[in-house]
Amino acid sequence: MIAIQQNKAILAEILRHGLQAVAEQMGAALVRTAYSVNIRSRRDFSCAVFDARGRLIAQAEHIPVHLGLFGGLIERCRARSGDLPVGAMWIVNDPWISGSHLPDVTIVAPVDVDGARIGYVANMAHHVDVGGAAPGSLSLGTHEIAQEGLRMPPLLLLRDGAIDPTIVALVAGASRLPDMVSGDLLAQVAANWTGVQRLTSLYGRIGTGAFEGAVETLLAATAERLRRRLASLEERSATCSEILEWDTDGQERDLVIRVTLAIRDGVIHADFSGTSPQIAGPVNATWLITTSCLLYVAKTYLDPDLPSNQGLADVIALDSDEASLVNAREPAAVALCTSITSQRTCDVLIAAFNQLMPEQAMAASSGSMNALVVGGYDPVRNCNFSYVETHGGGQGALSDADGADATHTHMTNTANSPIEQMEREYPFLVRRYGLVERSGGAGRHRGGHGLVREIELLADCVVTVHMDRTRHRPWGIAGGQAAGRSSLTVTLDGTSRKLPGKTTCFVQRGSVLTFSTAGGGGYGALSDRPAEMQQHDERCGLVARSA
Amino acid sequence: MSYLIGCDVGGTFTDVCLADSRMGRVVYVKIPTTVGAQAEAVLAASAQARAEAGVPADALQRFAHGTTVATNAILERKGGVTALLVTKGFRDILAIARQTRPSLYDAHLRRPDPLVSRHLVFEVAERMDAGGQVVQAPDPAEMAAIAESLLQGAVDAVAICLLHSYANAAHEHAVAEALGALLPGLSISCSADISPEPGEFERASTAVMNAYLTPPLERYLAALSAGLDEAFVQAPVVIMQSGGGVMPIAAAYREKAVHTCLSGPASGMMGAAWTARQAGYLNVVTMDMGGTSFDVGLIEGGDVIRRHDSALQGFPINVPMFDIVTLGAGGGSIATIDAGGLLVVGPESAGARPGPCAYGKGGTRPTVTDANVVLGRLRANRQISGGITLDRDKAVAAINAHIAQPLGISVEEAASGILAVVNASMSRGMRRMTIERGFDPETFVGMAFGGAGPAHAADLCRDLGMRTVIVPPAPGMLCALGVLLSPWTHSQASVVSVVVRSGHHADSAALDVAVGQAREAIAARAAIDGVDPAQVTTTMELEMRYRGQGHDLGVTYVAGSSDAVGDAVAAFHALHAQRFGYQRPEEAVEIRMLRAIGHAPSPDFVSPMLGRAAEGEGDAVMTTTPLWVAGAFREAPVLDRTKMAPGRRWHGPLLIEQADSTVYVGDDAVMVDAQGNLVIELSQQ
């Protein structure tokens, strides 16, 4: 046993390492046994550990958009379905309980030692297909959640330690890829088993009583650490707005996300009043996704190494005047809440933090996860296929550094597919993959470059695109200039047509898709950029975009 | 007589082992590394070893060397000016990498800048498809303009990475030939020759690293060769590879330069594996804790675990390398109270300068080493290397001011807390290395080295449920011996694509072709390297997965046996069950890569007795020292490692001092085995 007499400031830190190891080992188990590319290579999943009261005590998130979803999860599940019996596990993907869109499926397990509940473990993973209007369950053209796929309140996937085959059949039956979805569910269950074993062992090493005491210290210390960082910002506030690009029946519409951010009494208050109402399209987000955005921006500006646990919940407060784009109510459609809405919410919070902390201001980044989903029938390999990819863009310039080129920013961080793998597995010929020249905003520090991929489709396909910043450029700051926009064109037989940023459509074999992402805005005046840096940019063909 | 030299260069010391291989006699020399001019210390130490052993230059049979020249060139970005040729449309392969950022929340952290500046990346109008069929052939006439630009850019080395060259290398070779004709003498690295695997970014990164390392390795190895010539040493010089085994000098600065990235650490792992086998242990977790880092390695079934997809400093390198996880925790890691009031250790480090407070070099912030000094695990006033005497008062003052007073606890409690926290973070790294890779740590023993390793090993291993810790004699010698004992090795990878359906007999025809080609390639390499191909044994490994999975597992393939593929698939199911807890025998299995490894026989060697035999009992105890155990100081014996008699057991708490480190033994038993290793038997608490 780890010495019981340890001071609580020491024991809590030992516990933090131990809990983090539990979450990491759950993730490792999931990666090794999962079937879908989403989970095993793109790592679109997160793992979490809770105490007996259901408070989040550790999480290993691989993408920040999951950051706020686990807080309060157990409480929301219990409110809906009562508590978990020993040896049972919940499966849940209801956006108003587990927070994200329907393909993100969460599985929760209780951890019981000698008849006493000591905690819970859970993991959330992105499944390839849970039904709905189009492959991938991420379609445009929907008006309400019922069109987006199978929606599950907390159901018992396991009873008395055994998987209930009817629940697996229910999920598989709703999916276009039943084998893969079933395999991934089993991997999620196995990851929870790993978590249960590891948490039990850690609890045994620290000891009853000492464990609970260390949890209290850890949560309080996490809150205190963030509060201290906020002390110098007390009474500062800012109000900012951003645009989310939408169109209805071919008419372009600008939806507004608005926030008033204020630091009061050691708490970050984010009031989203003035944001556009929720709409009959899949760009609405739950309050939980919006919480992820606020936590992400707070960590980025205030303390990147801050542990992620329930202690943070006491230091943030979200508010809004009514149901809106960022606080959607049932039966809103939410498929694009992660790829688009979370990034737009993140940008408005960054704009506000820039006013609170001008010395750390950063320009806008590419502003979307730039998702591309291509599905259809491959006549050469004689099978159906479904390809999903998100694309990075330019990072906004910082007050003391250029923005990074061609990178995922803010709410995601998933890897690309190698060109050679795409051509080995799908009916594609990739003609170009590179930086978009003159897409970074000019300034003392230039914004990062967006990237471009040109794909020749060797089969008829259905293409879904999630993009933003096709009309409104990522802004510069402190005199820095705006970046280049994103765009999507389809070229067939020498004729090109531009598609809107949010599209699901049929594309004919032989067409070339040109998918360009936005750059990042610049920081400071271009005239202040040292001559030798400008010469270097020119020599490398990386001159910034200047209006 | 047959004399062999093994030489390993570390950051601080250069170790040389000269062995009379028939008699098992070993002469061992350790001198400070000459930073920036490694060859000087290498030559001096070798000359000293020969003088001590009375061995004339012309009696040496082999000079085997583990070097850090490549590692340092990467760390300091001091490789050659490198250019890259790519398929048209893909100029930014290196800049885009995998489009991820290294930290989710720290906007300042970046992927490393590519080793090739964008103005030195050139596109070639050519295309191969995924099946290796030509879509567009390259035009040799295009090379003239590129050659001109290379001249203007004062380029030292060129890498070529064209799409799908792992399936068909013809275009890369044609471009290399055309360029070589225009610029004779230019160093050219073709990606398909260096790492013929799918994945254009990682393959390009590997080829670029090879090209980048060629100039510094060529300079260094030329200086070393010249020095050995002057000393009339004519023995062939061989260089340690990152994945084990050695290669001749000529390969090390040409097409296999990238195999030297971790030449130094590989020597240590080879030595560790050898030592463990001698002592009868086949499954070992190695722990190397120095001033700033903690390296964990794994030996399973007597062999060091390798991987084929490593990264160094953020640059992917797809050639075989020993699988070593490095954490930023060491003796110099700084302890502090964070803004929330918790005691945290690292990632900040006092490094070598100013170093821990107890070193008296100006450090004022408490470190892990200071905690060990306060608790008596490192003896106060003890002289360590570099003319440093451990100053306990300074360590006490720092821990008192920064940790004990703010938390309202005693200095000893604070020091114990620092050790408990750093151990918790290191144990997380050891779990990553074992449990996350599907190994049960309880079936492994721990092996500790590095200056700080033996002070922490027992607590770490106990935390993972391990029973035994071994501390080999003189780790520096272990490295040198590891190089000395390494055979010539060459590995060859090739892409295959075979699907085996459940219940169907697997046809090995497609594999047979690949196996034949791999054998030929290894024999050809052996001939170039001056190794008799008839002496080379080749083993084969197949990488496979259940169809649809994303992760390969490697299993042995015995080509030519009656149901070779069927046996390998059966082995795959079993391995999958062991690693991941389940198998799916009804699923189709995809065979994706063939990896062949050729080994020459190891040098003849009679195992030496490394630890000096002790004279009598009782002599080993030099003195006693106050040691903090279970909440109080107790006067505990301090043993001189060189005087501990094999076979005898001592019970802790006690300290064992050796030249380069101190071994802490708590409430456990310790003995010296017949090979001179300390063996700590951990009590189960």
Question: What does the model show?
Answer:
The complex is a heterodimer of chains A (547) and B (685). Chain A has 547 residues and is of the alpha+beta class. Helices cover 28% and strands 25% of the residues of chain A. In chain A, the strands form four sheets. Chain A has a seven-stranded antiparallel sheet with strand order 2-1-5-4-3-6-7, sandwiched between helices. Chain A has a five-stranded antiparallel sheet with strand order 14-15-20-17-18, with helices on one face. In chain A, strands 8-9-10-11 form a four-stranded mixed sheet, with helices on one face. Chain A starts with 7 loop residues before the first helix and ends in an 8-residue tail after the last helix. Chain B has 16 helices and 37 strands. In chain B, strands 13, 14, 15, 20, 25, 26, 33, 36 and 37 form a nine-stranded mixed sheet that branches. In chain B, strand 14 and strand 15 (303-304) form a beta hairpin. In chain B, helix 2 (69-75) crosses helix 7. Chain B starts with a strand and ends with a strand. The chains are: A alpha+beta (547), B alpha+beta (685).
